[in-house]
Design brief:
Structural class of chain B: mainly alpha
Radius of gyration of chain B: 23 Å
Largest interface: A-B, 64 and 54 residues
Number of domains of chain B: 2
Largest sheet of chain B: 2 strands, antiparallel
Number of helices of chain A: 10
Oligomer: heterodimer
Strand order of the largest sheet of chain B: 1-2
Order of helices and strands of chain A: HHHHHHHHHH
Radius of gyration of chain A: 39 Å
Distance between the termini of chain A: 127 Å
Number of helices of chain B: 8
Largest sheet of chain A: none
CATH topology of the largest domain in chain B: Serine Threonine Protein Phosphatase 5, Tetratricopeptide repeat
CATH class of the largest domain in chain B: Mainly Alpha
Shape of chain A: elongated
Chain lengths: ~240, ~200
């Protein structure tokens, strides 16, 4: 056959070999590079710590019903799912708060690309997590998926609110003690002053007789004095 | 977090009687706290009366508890008007407890509103008994729950601090209060009063 006889196969193979090696080496390099990059991204520390609530929920879900271990009741699973949704709410809030700041920092070059990659991974994960929770919720009760995150968000806020309140209320005792002490010093100062003014030791002698007793004394003394407007006047007077 | 398809299996155990979940393996603190929270939530979830056993959406609110809280508040107000301040404080405390005892999935805004009003009232009753320290704490808590539209709460803590002779604190507090309630006449007056005392 004409065309094939005329071809010098050996010489022709050289450019083909050249092309093959070129393309092959590029392909190998590209695949290695990509693999490396993916491995690096995967090995970056995750944004969030392990999702404890999710682990608990799934552990409960996969608990094997054995003779000694009855099946986990649905109510427990629902509670665990609610806890999981609440933790998700915390995470979403964190992601939302961090996003804007992180974008600005990234634009300015203040943070590395690694951090941004970690963040984006966390964002993607949380999206899938939400979808998963909604599906699970819908499996328990029709349309629960639509309200579970409303409930979870209220739960998160309610917990926060009660914590704040408990924190403030826990100062009551120390405040009270401080004020009792302060009242005593004001009172004794006032008594001393009175002592010096009137030089009458009789009235002062009954001073250390307990809190309510001394209170009465102070009022009695005051009603005899020039300024008499309940307890407030007494304190002001002690200040002079 | 792990990838979406995997999870860490935890060594959990279900108590057949109480249905309480506990950990059988080595317990760390976080797991123990979480399980305690889970068991508490489970118990409160059992008392829900929806047919599916899931918490109802935040609104509408179950009116029963609201009515009870209102009743307690009213009786507290009545005691206050009769000058039975100690009783009034007790009523308000009960009402606060009731409001805080709402199931966790009910609207937190509602709890804030109720608790802030009740704490403010209790602060007033404490002030009537000259318990300035308690009044100050209650008013502070009330403001923490609701900062805007709570001029009374702001005023009451300012007044308590003033009465205790903590002028610097009172001054700072009232200044902050005026940022929220600039037009409130009582707060402006209190500020003047504090400044007069401080200058002396």
């Amino acid at each position: 056959m004409w065309p094939f006889d005329a071809v010098d196969w050996l010489t022709l193979s050289i450019p083909f070999a050249y092309l093959f090696i070129l393309v092959g080496s590029l392909a190998v390099f590209s695949s290695l590079y990509r693999k490396n990059k993916a491995a690096k991204a995967a090995s970056l520390a995750p944004w969030f710590p392990p999702h404890l609530q999710r682990n608990i929920y799934l552990s409960l879900l996969h608990m094997e019903p054995e003779p000694g271990h009855p099946k986990v009741p649905d109510s427990v699973l629902k509670a665990a799912l609610l806890r999981r949704a609440t933790e998700d709410i915390h995470r979403i809030v964190q992601i939302r708060n961090a996003k804007q700041a992180l974008q600005v920092l990234l634009q300015r070059g203040s943070v590395g690309d690694d951090l941004w990659q970690r963040f984006q991974r966390a964002e993607k994960e949380i999206e899938e997590e939400l979808r998963d929770v909604v599906n699970e919720a819908n499996a328990f009760a029709p349309n629960w998926g639509q309200t579970i995150f409303q409930s979870a968000s209220e739960m998160a806020q309610n917990t926060h609110l009660r914590e704040r309140l408990a924190e403030i209320q826990s100062t009551t005792q120390s405040e009270k003690e401080w004020w009792e002490k302060r009242k005593e010093t004001i009172k004794s100062d006032f008594m001393k002053e009175l002592d010096e003014e009137k030089k009458s030791p009789m009235e002062v002698s009954s001073k250390p007789s307990g809190k309510t007793g001394s209170d009465d004394d102070a009022v009695i003394v005051e009603s005899g004095g020039p300024a008499a407007t309940a307890g407030k006047g007494k304190k002001k007077k002690g200040k002079h | 977090m792990e990838s979406p398809d995997t999870f860490t299996l935890l060594p959990l155990h279900l108590n057949p009687q109480s249905k309480a979940i506990s950990s059988t393996g080595t317990t760390n603190n976080a797991l123990a706290t979480e399980l305690a929270a889970l068991n508490t939530l489970h118990r409160s979830l059992l008392s829900v009366d929806t047919p599916t056993g899931t918490p109802p959406p935040p609104v509408p609110v179950n009116p029963k508890r609201s009515a009870q809280i209102n009743k307690l508040r009213e009786s507290g107000n009545n005691e206050f008007r009769k000058n039975n301040y100690a009783n009034a404080i007790r009523m308000y405390s009960l009402a606060i407890e009731m409001a805080l005892g709402r199931p966790a999935w009910e609207p937190s805004g509602l709890v804030r509103e109720e608790v802030s009003g009740l704490l403010s009232n209790r602060a007033q009753a404490n002030m009537a008994l000259q318990n300035w320290a308690e009044g100050a704490v209650d008013a502070e808590a009330s403001v923490e729950m609701k900062k805007v539209g709570n001029a009374k709460g702001w005023w009451r803590r300012g007044k308590c601090l003033l009465e205790m002779g903590r002028y610097e604190e009172a001054d700072a507090w009232v200044k902050q209060a005026l940022e929220f309630e600039a037009t409130e006449q009582d707060l402006v007056q209190l500020k003047e009063e504090i400044e007069k005392k401080k200058d002396r």
